[in-house]
Every structure is written in C-alpha cells, then in structure tokens.
Amino acid sequence: MIQDEATTYVCPVELALQAIVGKWKPAILWELTAGARRFSELQSALPGIAHKVLSQQLAQLQRDGMVMRSEPASDAPPGYMLTLLGGTLRPALDALAQWGKAHGDRVSANAQEMNRHR
Questions:
Q1: Which one of 5, 84, 89, 97 is most buried, by most CB atoms within 10 A?
Q2: How far, in Å, CA of 26 to CA of 96, rounded?
Q3: Where are the domains of the chain?
Q4: Does domain 2-116 have CATH number 2.60.40.2150?
Q5: For the segment 10-58, what is each residue's pLDDT rounded down to a tens digit?
Q6: Looking at residue 89, what is its pLDDT?
Q7: Cα(107)–Cα(66) distance, rounded to whole angstroms?
Q8: Cα 82–83–87 angle (5° rounding)?
Q9: Would the pTM count as exceeding 0.85?
Q10: Integer-rounded Cα radius of gyration of the chain
C-alpha cells in the first residue's frame, strides 16, 4: 500500500492516475509533450476548454509538479512546459494514445450500444 499525507492508495496505478485525473489534464499533458506552449496556444489546441478551467487545470498540474510556468526572463520559451517529473509520463501517454487509436472506435461503439438499451 502507498501512502501520501492525505490518502492511502491500494496500488501504484491508482496513485499514477490520481496525478493526471481530470477531464482536460491528459490532453494538456499530451500537448505539452511536444514542447512549451503559451496559455493561448493550449486554449486553441483544446477546443471547448473554458479559460477558467484551463487555468485551474494548469494550476493543479503545477501544484503536483507535472508542469511549470516559464518565467519571461528565462531562456526557455514563455508559457507552460513539462517538468522532469511530468516528462516521465511521456511513455505512459504514448501508450495510452496508441491504445486509444487502436480501440477508440470499439469503445465508442460499445458505449453507443449500451446507451441504446437504456
């Protein structure tokens, strides 16, 4: 069992998912795997996300150490980027992307079928 200050996790998968859970967090992290992005670039890349929601999700990802905001005076491009810790998610995000491409149609079809029978 894994514990942090507030929560006990039954397995490491649960802990890992907790770090990226949220409607927009996986998409934000995926966008940042390509490099630093400004807030406006993230908003354009994620149609439908509200300004406030993007701001909140980025703040949570920063709090959890996955994302950092670059300072305008630094050599890095201004905006948001993955931290070293956030970058370690890249293989998992790649695997999830491949799974989504391979099985997304089947998952959608199953969901539609279940909704028809309700």
A1: 89
A2: 10
A3: 2-116
A4: no
A5: 888 888 888 888 889 999 999 999 999 999 999 999 999 999 999 999 9
A6: 95
A7: 28
A8: 65
A9: no
A10: 17
